[in-house]
Amino acid sequence: MRIGIVARSDLPETIKFTRKMLKLVPKSDVVLEREIAAKLGMRGTSMRDMKVDAIVTIGGDGTVLLSQQGAPDVPMLGINMGGRGFLADVSPANAPKALRRLLAGELPIRERAKLAVEIASKRLPDALNEAVVRAASVGHTLDYNVLVDGEVVEATRGDGVIVATPTGSTAYSLAAGGPIVDLRLDALVITPICTSHPHGTPLVVPMDSRIEVEITRRDAILVVDGRFIAKVKPNDKLLFYRSDKPAKFFGWGDEFYRRIREKL
After folding, report:
1. Mind listing the pLDDT tens digit for each residue in 71-108?
2. What is the CATH code for 115-242?
3. Which one of 46, 96, 127, 175 is CB 3.0 to 4.6 Å from 115, fit for a cystine?
């Protein structure tokens, strides 16, 4: 099995841990992402150019999200170096065992739904966690409508709105007052951000819904999994729906509710 390694290159402990992990994998079977490779004095490549069977991320959930955007079709195993670790769920202590089982082909591949995003019929990068529409200027609010399958469900004013997957329901959406959704459910979450006139209510809708957001006043921006993607003008049509390309992760523990108890 050929493995790509993506790690945070700005943390000394992550660089040191990556060196340790490299000792467990034959050199001919490893491809390093170029930034961590530079820190290690080795050759590397971009994530998009990696020709690998698996990617191991070393860092936190942000490293996983970054890797998902860089190599969305490759199954991943995330090693958590200190953050919450909902996506990067392998502890450093368990990492050698997890890597050995990965190399032996003993870890199952599990899929997680992703969110397709369009502006004016133009397809943008998919979201694993969430897509956020928010005011382009700090201190300003947006007037916007939310439609589900053509029916208006929100017409309000506020800082913006989040459309999240079950995976993303424990991230920004939760901080904004949205519910936690069990990963086994086929559902999407719509969470208004700081709304008034009237006060917005979080909604859970079927995964096969088509969600539209219409901006009726002021410019907005679209952020996908924490990264700026595009500017949005009034009357631009934003569309969100289940992607036909799910994220793939190597299974390591299924204790979803234990993680909620321990990490939230």
Report:
1. 999 999 999 997 777 899 899 999 999 999 999 999 99
2. 2.60.200.30
3. 127
Query: What is the Cα–Cα distance from 225 to 150, expressed in whole angstroms?
Result: 25
Catalytic residue among 29, 61, 159, 208: 61
Q: In Å, what is the CA distance from 32 to each residue of 9, 40, 83, 87, 163?
A: 11, 10, 22, 20, 33
SS3 152: strand
Q: Do the beta carbons of residue 103 and residue 52 sit within 8 Å? A: no
Strand-pair partners of 69: none
H/E stretch holding 49: none
Class of domain 3-112+246-263: alpha beta
Q: Is the dihedral of CA 233, 140, 127, 176 positive or negative?
A: negative
Q: Where are the domains of the chain?
A: 3-112+246-263, 115-242
Give the predicted TM-score (pTM) of the model.
Answer: 0.93
